[in-house]
UniProtKB/TrEMBL annotation:
Belongs to the NAD-dependent DNA ligase family. LigA subfamily. DNA ligase that catalyzes the formation of phosphodiester linkages between 5'-phosphoryl and 3'-hydroxyl groups in double-stranded DNA using NAD as a coenzyme and as the energy source for the reaction. It is essential for DNA replication and repair of damaged DNA. GO terms for biological process: DNA repair; DNA replication. Its cofactor is Mg(2+); Mn(2+). Keywords: DNA damage, DNA repair, DNA replication, Ligase, Magnesium, Manganese, Metal-binding, NAD, Zinc. Residues 594-671 form the BRCT domain. The active site is at residue 111. This is DNA ligase. It comes from Cellulomonas chitinilytica. It comes from the Bacteria. The keyword Ubl conjugation does not apply.
């Protein structure tokens, strides 16, 4: 991005064109040309350029001054008063300034990420719904809204003969997004990019197949001009009226925010900003910031409105969860369970609090649907600590010579893929042997030091190791001469070390032995749960599909896969050979002793780190002390181990009244 103070006329014109194209896509189509953060940064750049040289102002007046960036032509329905936009507070200090200017009660609300509409009720009946359009007039979407049956915008108000106008946001709750995608696919459309885009697309079409998927939340309520209606003196009173009549409101979506009532201090507003940010990931609906507004009509009247925005309200935007970057490569590999893993490597970009270098390619079907190509500019999203993923491809920026990605026709050994599920798998066991063995010796499993990728590959290549039991048959003699490329061998010193490590690993905890078996659908967490339910190898061998299905987190489908994995190990004699090698295979628990342990009967969640422990070892510690380690906070959680923080786990635990201890207190608790 060039320095806004140095921009030439051509720079300004080019940037303005790009932003116009993006706004047109944003407001009028189902595609996205750039991320919101990039759009906002571009607008800010133009703003500075104009401030430095007002000569540029006329050329970008639409982008800086008009609602919907001048991209909407409006519609047949005139708005009685402007449906404007909101000024953005760039800093918390700017928010404070508004609170001081209001100098009276202020309301804080989530800033919903959807699109604005206006709805008129006369004598309790929904009469008219219009889009914001260009702010002066919009399109009549009354019939579409009736067909779509928006949650929070009833066809009839409850009780009252009320005549009232509500303005607010049409949005999609997170839980509806998968249904929307399904409905979209059944209608033959390309997948929605995100939930805002889905809400806009669905309202535009008004197809009955999308009924029940959208919601409405009011952020403005006013009497209808020619009717006698409640002209309360404050916004919050009018909200109460609307809520009682059955209309959804932004306030009601976050009733805990600022204690659900107007506040008067900058401290209270800042606390609300933090509280909403902390819960952003668990709200269940999309927001991009928080809105602060005057509550009393006298304060609103005193401050007045500008041409596009009111002076008694401001929005503060949260850190973006999406960013633009470029795809630099697409790689595939066969994972430990034979699964084809697709990785989209991207140019490093800072988003959601960390630097991202890759995104998941999900599966082959997903890659084809999205048509992600090397060289593409993409919007990458990282929210809620999940693996980053590609939200959309910016087609306008696609290099002309780019080629579609093709899936590998066969597995690396030329075998056919098993395409019976979305995740393609190779059924060639030799392909996953290396990965399986590496997994077995990894830190979360047997934790064998000194056995790196090169050694494992050579062991598999030489035919010395075909499964995990073979590891324990390795001798110093064979290992010493293990070839490692360029004529090198492992040597006796390393060989002695590895054999000693493997000897130690024979005594590994039972849950780690289970993990090391590398059965599909199991990993370190499942290894612990299975070990807790089936404390010995005999119990594991005898476990029926039903028994496995009853274990926490398994269920009938996974149970079948796990049982098949056990049968396969049995058939190849792996389990017998592990016993013969003297590997630890579990012990019957002593019920009385377990009940006396400090964490007996408790469900414990750890957020952040505990000094001296990894994620796996801390979970093992909890279970060794009689507790159950869990990763999410719920009403059944007995204890949260965490430093004080604004993380969603901490906030939720505090809200539920779950006992919270610091990592140090936790360790002290266990003596
Ligand atoms: N990605 C893109 O290409 C692209 C293009 C154009 C615009 N945009 C996004 O749109 C923004 C500008 O558009 P805008 O003027 O429509 O919206 P805005 O972000 O300036 O905010 C105003 C809107 O917020 C909504 N809102 C949600 N909750 C509210 C609440 N509680 N109280 C009051 N209003 C509430 C209303 O619909 C209102 O019209 C940009 O900042 C950018 O993020 C993105």
């Amino acid at each position: 991005m060039s320095d806004p103070a140095q921009m030439t006329e051509q720079d300004v014109a080019d940037l303005a064109d790009r932003l116009r194209a993006a706004a047109a896509a944003y407001y009028d189509t189902d595609t996205l040309a750039m991320s919101d953060a990039e759009y906002d940064a571009g607008i800010e750049q133009l703003r500075i350029a104009v401030a430095v040289d007002p000569y540029f102002a006329p050329a970008v007046a639409d982008l800086l001054g008009a609602v919907a960036a001048g991209q909407s032509a409006g519609g047949d329905v005139e708005h009685p008063t402007m449906m404007g936009s909101l000024d953005k507070a760039p800093t918390l200090d700017a928010l404070d300034a508004l609170v001081h200017a209001i100098d009276g009660p202020v309301v804080v609300e989530p800033k919903l990420d959807g699109l604005a509409i206006r709805a008129v009720y006369r004598r309790g009946r929904l009469e008219l719904v219009a889009t914001r359009g260009d702010g002066r007039s919009g399109e009549d979407v009354t019939d579409k809204v009736r067909t779509l049956a928006l949650d929070g915008l009833p066809a009839r108000l409850t009780g009252a003969d009320l005549s009232v106008e509500v303005r607010g946001e049409v949005f999609m709750a997170d839980s509806r997004f998968p249904d929307a995608q399904e409905a979209r696919a059944s209608l033959g459309g390309a997948p929605f990019v995100n939930s805002r885009n889905a809400a806009a697309g669905i309202l535009r079409k008004g197809d009955a197949a999308y009924a029940g998927l959208l919601s409405f939340a009011a952020y403005d309520v006013s009497p209808v001009a020619d009717e006698t209606a409640a002209a309360d003196e404050s916004y919050s009173n009018r909200l109460t009226l609307a809520e009682h009549a059955g209309v959804g409101t932004a306030r009601a979506l976050a009733p805990w925010l600022a204690g659900g009532a107007p506040v008067t201090t900058t401290t209270a507003v800042r606390a609300a900003v933090d509280a909403l940010a902390a819960r952003r990931a668990v709200l269940g609906f999309p927001i991009d910031g928080i809105v602060v507004k005057a509550d009393a009509d006298v304060d609103r009247a005193r401050l007045g409105s500008g041409s596009r925005t009111p002076r008694w309200s401001v929005a503060y935007k949260y850190e973006a969860e999406t960013a633009l970057t470029r795809v630099v490569g697409i790689t595939t590999a066969v994972g430990r369970t034979g699964r084809l893993a697709i990785r989209v490597e991207v140019a490093p970009v800072f988003v959601g609090g960390t630097t991202i270098t890759f995104a998941t390619g999900h599966n082959v079907t997903w890659m084809f649907e999205r048509d992600v190509r090397v060289g593409d500019t993409v919007v990458i999203k990282r929210a809620n600590d999940v693996i980053p993923y590609i939200e959309s491809v910016v087609l306008d920026e696609r290099p002309t010579d780019s080629e579609p990605w093709t899936a590998p026709a066969t597995d690396p050994n030329g075998g056919e893929w098993d395409k019976s599920t979305l995740l393609w798998r190779s059924t060639d066991p030799s392909l996953s042997v290396g990965a399986l063995v590496r997994y077995a010796v990894s830190r979360d499993a047997l934790d064998v030091e000194g056995v790196g990728t090169e050694i494992v590959e050579s062991l598999v290549e030489q035919g010395l190791v075909a499964d995990i039991a073979d590891l324990f048959g390795l001798t110093v003699e064979t290992l010493t001469t293990l070839p490692l490329g360029e004529g090198r061998t492992l040597g006796s010193k390393n060989a002695v070390k590895i054999v000693a490590e493997l000897d130690r690993a024979k005594g590994a905890a039972w849950n780690r032995v289970i993990t090391a078996l590398g059965i599909r659908m199991t990993g370190r967490t499942m290894g612990r749960r299975i070990a807790a339910a089936l404390p010995t190898l005999d119990a594991l061998r005898a476990a029926s599909v039903e028994t496995l299905a009853g274990i926490d987190g398994i269920g009938p489908k996974k149970a079948e896969v796990i049982r098949a994995g056990l049968d396969d190990l049995e058939a190849r004699g792996v389990l017998d050979r592990l016993v013969a090698a003297g590997v630890h295979t579990g012990t019957e628990p002593d019920e009385a002793a377990s009940a006396a342990l400090p964490l007996a009967g408790m469900t414990v969640v750890v957020s952040g780190s505990v000094p001296g422990y990894s994620r796996t070892t801390v979970a093992e510690l909890i279970e060794a002390q009689g507790g159950k380690a869990s990763s999410s906070v719920s009403s059944t959680t007995s204890l949260l181990v965490s430093e004080p923080s604004t993380s969603s786990k901490y906030v939720k635990a505090a809200e539920l009244g779950v006992r919270i201890v610091t990592p140090e207190e936790f360790l002290a608790l266990l003596g």
